[in-house]
Design a protein that fits this description.
With 337 residues, the chain is an alpha/beta fold. 36% of the residues lie in helices and 20% in strands. The chain starts with 5 loop residues before the first strand and ends in a 13-residue tail after the last helix.
Length: 337
């Protein structure tokens, strides 16, 4: 039962970006950039692109652009103190479009963009950026939208009425995830209680296991994970426990292969369509803007085979209502605790 088969309203196809259509083409079949050559796209990733997680999703989007005719390059494992230098290197190497994958890079992206008005930049942000440069697009990740759906999912799955949330750093977007889950529970009239904890590191599996074990010990039978590589720790906390006694979810990608029989599913993201859409806007002459992620633009809830059909139906209905605008998810980044 540990292979998710239901993906609710996934917005992204796996097919390559039609870059020749999205970004224009000349008679030679290439995508014009400087001097009529193919568009050159450089991407910068915070971690390894083989992480089966956030950075791997970025590489998939970049490679889809390559299949569509772009010339690509990328740098991985870039720390925040080094981002400005990597951005300037990308510009110096002749990139027409520079994409930084991760909201922690936005400030430097905007700074370098202002100094290079002839280059287009794509950054990521949680919310609406102030004083956004005229040559910068932002992809607003809107994590709170997806976590509203996860709040309904967790509440429906819990038998004890106690749900744990395990995050990494207590950043504003993480606060918004918890608040969105609380809103979902309130909107449905449920009495489920959410207990959030933060390990201090998105990739520390040992701490994630420790905190998850404590949550389970206090009665939580559903754990909602908002981690990167640290997710394995939340899975390990369920090892040896009877099947059906509790559930755990993950974020970004399908992690069923590592999770075991307690895996309920994942809040999954795909940047192929969002990245392609923004490239198309840039080619069409719109050099700046905000692209919001949501259930109709790159976000889906994938649920394991063992999730009851009635739960899937409730979550599916919730997602449809969010897309239709019948449910308004509040963005609340106020600090918890």
């Amino acid at each position: 039962m540990n292979h998710p088969t239901t993906r609710l309203l996934a917005a992204v196809a796996v097919a390559p970006l039609l870059l020749l259509g999205a970004c224009g083409s000349d008679d030679e079949g290439g995508t014009p950039g400087a001097g009529g050559d193919k568009v050159k796209i450089a991407a910068i990733f915070s971690g390894p692109t083989n992480d089966a997680d956030y950075n791997a999703l970025g590489l998939q989007a970049l490679q889809s652009a390559e299949k569509g005719g772009a010339e690509i390059s990328y740098t991985e494992k870039v720390a925040v103190p080094d981002i400005e230098a990597r951005l300037n290197e990308a510009v110096g190497d002749g990139a027409d479009v520079v994409w930084t994958h991760g909201s922690q890079f936005y400030e430097a992206t905007a700074k370098v963009a202002q100094a290079n008005p002839d280059v287009s930049f794509i950054g990521e942000f949680d919310g609406t950026a102030k004083d956004q440069p005229a040559n910068v697009w932002t992809i607003d990740r809107q994590f709170h939208i997806g976590f509203y759906g996860m709040g309904v999912f967790a509440s429906e799955m819990s038998k004890t009425g106690k749900v744990g949330y395990v995050g990494g750093l207590s950043l504003p977007f993480s606060m918004s995830e918890v608040h969105a889950m609380e809103q979902a529970i309130s909107d449905t009239g449920a009495s489920t209680k959410i207990t959030p904890v933060w390990t201090g590191d998105f990739n520390d599996a040992a701490k994630a296991q420790q905190f998850t074990t404590q949550l389970i010990g206090s009665g939580a039978d559903v754990i909602i994970g908002s981690l990167n590589q640290g997710a394995t720790g939340t899975f390990q906390a369920f090892e040896g426990k009877p099947e059906g006694s509790g559930w755990v979810t993950a974020k970004y990608t399908d992690k069923s292969a590592a999770a075991g029989p307690h895996y309920a599913g994942s809040l999954e993201y795909d940047f192929v369509k969002p990245f392609g859409d923004v490239l198309g806007k840039i080619k069409a002459g719109t050099k700046t803007g905000r692209y919001p992620l949501g259930f109709d633009t790159g976000v889906s809830i994938a649920m394991a085979d063992g999730v009851p059909a009635e739960v899937k139906s409730v979550v599916d209905d919730t997602v449809k209502k969010i897309i239709a605008g019948d449910i308004k998810v509040e963005l609340d980044t106020s600090k918890i605790g």
